[in-house]
Each structure stands twice: as structure tokens, then as C-alpha cells.
Design a protein that fits this description.
Blueprint lengths: L10 H26 L5 H7 L2 E4 L8 E6 L2 E7 L2 H9 L11 H4 L7 E5 L10 E4 L4 E3 L6 E2 L5 E3 L11 E5 L2 E4 L1
Antiparallel strand pairs: 1-10, 2-3, 3-4, 5-6, 6-7, 7-8, 9-10
Amino acid sequence: MTTVSSAEHTRRDFLYIATGAVGAVGAAAALVPLIAQMNPDASTIAAGAPVEIDLAPIAEGQIIKVFWRSKPIFISHRTKKEIEEAQKVAVASLPDPESDNARVKQGHDQWLVVIGICTHLGCIPIAKQGEYDGWFCPCHGSQYDTSGRIRKGPAPKNLELPPYTFVSDNKIRIG
């Protein structure tokens, strides 16, 4: 009778180890797509991603529209006259009192960045229209000034401000 010492490896030990290794690789291969499908879709990531805007090509007095998170964002390069008019308004007389300085970044008074959705029923106002030369919502007549503050009409609040920062003097990051 031959005895095999426990220190020697047998063919059976090799088969156990090989079977276990193949099973572990197979389980990992099955888990990778399962875990990967839980990640958000690329379009979902892009929809919430920050957007960088180059301000250099925007002429003084011009307003451009960009999109962030499927919302229109108005970026206004205000003239000195528009800034002065917005700053002289008696804040207490406004339906939603807010100073012009609170609506722009310090040192960048010429740039106003607002979400272009009327706070009444969600319409998109038209730029450089109305009595205050700001935005006019044709749906129900809300009028905003050059600082995006509600001045007249049914809208209860000023145009909202998106979260943004100046990356440089001529570039902002929204989001």
C-alpha cells in the first residue's frame, strides 16, 4: 500500500485550485457589467456637468443664451448706463427686493448671469424688451429690469441666479 504525504500535491488538489480560480474569474466577469449598469448614463452626466463660457466675444450691450441642465441661461454684458440704472433703483420699491450688487459678482458688475425662465409660469422671457429694457415675458406680461429683477406683472420673484464663478476675467463656469 502506498501512502501519500500531505505535503505532496496531487492531481486532485490541482483540479480543486483550477476549478476555484475559473469560478472566481467567472463570478468577477458576471459582476462587472452588473455594477457598470448602475452608473449614470453619459447624457445624464453631461446634463449636470459644469459649463465653461468664454465671455471675450460677447460685445457690450449684448445678451447671449446658453444651456445648462436643460435650462436657458442669459449672460448679459451690461453697459455702464444699464449698470447705473439698475443701481439707482430704490430696492424697497421692488416686489422682490434685492440690490443690483447682490445679483452680480463683486468686481464684475458688467456681467449679469440669470436663469432665463420666468418665475410666474416658466415661460422664456425676451431680452431687451419691456419698459425697463431688461426682459419681457409675453405670456402674461411680467417685466424684468437690466438686473433681472421683477418690476411689473404677475411674476412673484426675480429671475433666478445659477451657481457660477469666474475662472478668469473672460471666462465663467456655470454649475
